[in-house]
Amino acid sequence: ANKPFRVHLRAPGFAHLSSMDHVVSGHMLPDVVAMIGTYDLVFGEVDR
Prior knowledge:
Elements: H1 12-18, H2 20-24, H3 29-39, H4 43-47
């Protein structure tokens, strides 16, 4: 068949959330809250 049976796609928010540990290490908690806000994540897409 010419069509793939299954395709696994990962949302871009997953990669952004994975990099969060590297980005926020060494910062204060209020700064981390602001950083999460700038990531503009949709947690529904990360949860799939």
